[in-house]
From TrEMBL:
Native organism taxonomy: Bacteria, Pseudomonadati, Bacteroidota, Flavobacteriia, Flavobacteriales
Transmembrane segments: 167-189
Keywords from the UniProt entry: ATP-binding, Kinase, Membrane, Nucleotide-binding, Phosphoprotein, Transferase, Transmembrane, Transmembrane helix, Two-component regulatory system
Catalytic activity reported: ATP + protein L-histidine = ADP + protein N-phospho-L-histidine
Record bears the keyword Disulfide bond: no
Protein name (database record): histidine kinase
Pfam annotation, one family: HATPase_c
Record-linked Gene3D superfamilies: 1.10.287.130, 6.10.340.10, Histidine kinase-like ATPase, C-terminal domain
Species in which this protein is naturally found: Maribacter caenipelagi
Domain Histidine kinase intervals: 261-469
Enzyme Commission number(s): 2.7.13.3
Molecular-function annotations in GO: ATP binding; phosphorelay sensor kinase activity
Family annotation (InterPro entries): HATPase_C_sf (IPR036890), HATPase_dom (IPR003594), His_kinase_dom (IPR005467), HisK_dim/P_dom (IPR003661), HisK_dim/P_sf (IPR036097), Sig_transdc_His_kin-like_C (IPR004358)
């Protein structure tokens, strides 16, 4: 309704402007024709009364004074040219003759010559204003052309433009009132039509799987509304049954997910334990003078991983989440270095800008984060000719930044958004819980994790934790 009112107002305004323009155009054309005819009659009368021979050469004498009298009577200036286009006489004052063309161009003469009625009208421009100029032949009493009559006609549309503005102003007032009435009418009509729909919409908005939903009851609804209410009430009944099934399914799925995550968490420390034992077996030398220090180092690593497995088992047995946070003030550089020492690959390198960067974190969970990221980096470079994994620790403002970079095959663009999703993996083995778990640990400590990857060049994972305030 509002749209129709707006369209109607625009169309009527457009038609009104067009009609005013057409009326103004017709008025000026008719007026110019009348003025030209009156001036021609006055010229013919002057030719009949003259005592001079009616020739082109005598036009200046014939209209020596009469041209001014005719211009005053008809209230319009005009010019007389010879058949060759040279100005003979003008009714305009001499000081204004500089704006009059002293000679007609060839186009005017040609158009006038080939015109069937020996009449030609051309639009000209003077001082930025447009005006029309009509050209016709002046004939003697035997209808022989002896000169050219030029009538400049300036169109004064100021009055019409003023009337048009006044009319459009009144019309806009009327349509503004109609628009306000249409808005009010549309509002009340829509309220009347949609009051039953609002009740249904409100009830639908309150629908929740976790509670008992109420059915809708409306007195004397329309036929369509009644069908909609019946469909909603039937959906509520089905929803209640589905909620029971869904709750049972969610409990079963939760147990499955917990079992998978616990299995994944237990598997993580087993791998470094195995690598540690193999490394110890390969490098064991009873005659080494530092054998006691190395043995203690290997033992500490094994004990640390055993403690991790123990905390996971304890948490599972108590139906809790992953190991509870045991926040402690620790040197991140030292812990990260300790975490990567369990890996035997010689292409793993570690650098740190400082010897000590203090943060308040859980030692076990920090090791778990680093271990998962390094394992993923190792698995990304098996087919690379010169594999390289770089682990770095640095300060970045109030944050400590841990980076794990590899020169592996990179991550596909389609997989970048899903890389932290649980159970997502691009490997043939594993359950895809590692990076999801890492993200949860990092966010628990108000940290961030992100990565950049280029196919064929490698991937860099960056983890940031808040540093301990000193």
């Amino acid at each position: 309704m509002i749209f129709l009112v707006l369209i109607a107002s625009v169309l009527i305004a457009g038609v009104t402007v067009y009609q005013y323009r057409e009326q103004s155009k017709d008025y000026h054309e008719n007026r110019m024709e009348r003025k030209e005819e009156q001036i021609r009659q006055s010229i013919d009368l002057a030719i009949q009364k003259t005592t001079y021979p009616v020739t082109t050469e005598n036009l200046d004498l014939i209209f020596k004074n009469e041209i001014y009298e005719i211009a005053v009577v008809q209230n319009m200036n005009f010019n007389i040219y010879s058949l060759d286009g040279e100005l003979i006489k003008s009714s305009r004052p001499k000081f204004a003759n500089d704006s009059i063309s002293m000679c007609l161009d060839a186009e005017v003469l040609n158009k006038l010559e080939i015109s069937p009625n020996k009449h030609y009208v051309r639009e000209n421009a003077l001082a930025g204003d447009k005006y029309k100029a009509s050209f016709s032949y002046i004939a003697d009493q035997k209808f022989k052309p002896i000169g050219i009559l030029n009538l400049p006609y300036f169109e004064d549309n100021s009055f019409n433009d003023y009337e048009l503005k006044e009319f459009l102003f009144r019309l806009s007032g009327v349509y503004l009132l109609m628009l306000l009435m249409a808005i009010a009418f549309a509002f009340f009509i829509s309220k009347y039509i949609t009051r039953s729909l609002e009740t249904i919409s409100t009830m639908m908005g309150k629908t929740n799987l976790s509670k008992q939903n109420k059915k809708i009851y409306i007195d004397n609804p329309g036929e369509e509304i009644e069908k909609l209410i019946a469909a909603y009430n039937g959906m509520i009944d089905e929803l209640g049954q589905s909620a029971v099934k869904l709750a049972r399914s969610e409990r079963e799925q939760a147990w499955r997910e917990m079992a998978k995550q616990v299995a994944h968490e237990i598997k993580n420390p087993l791998t470094p334990m195995r690598l540690t034992v193999q490394s110890f077996e390969r490098k064991f030398d009873p005659s080494d003078p530092q054998i006691h220090e190395k043995l203690k180092e290997y033992s500490n690593t094994l004990i640390q991983q055993i403690d991790t497995m123990s905390s996971i088992a304890s948490a599972f047995s108590n139906f809790a989440e992953m190991p509870a946070q045991q926040n402690e003030t620790l040197n991140v550089v030292k812990i990260v270095k300790l975490a990567i020492d369990i890996f035997n690959e010689d292409y793993i390198h570690f650098i740190a800008d400082e010897e000590e960067i203090i943060a308040k974190l859980d030692r076990t969970q920090l090791i778990r984060v680093v271990t998962n990221l390094v394992k993923n980096a190792i698995q990304a470079v098996p087919d690379v000719a010169s594999p390289r994994v770089l682990v770095s620790v640095a300060s970045e403002g109030d944050m400590v930044k841990i980076s794990v970079a590899d020169n592996g095959h990179g991550i596909e663009k389609d997989n970048e958004e899903k890389i932290f999703e649980p159970k997502f993996t691009t490997k043939t083995s594993g359950m895809g819980l590692g990076l999801g778990m890492v993200k949860n640990i990092v966010e628990t400590y108000k940290g961030t994790i992100n990565f950049t990857s280029h196919l064929g060049k490698g991937t860099v994972f960056c983890v940031k934790f808040p540093k301990e305030n000193t």
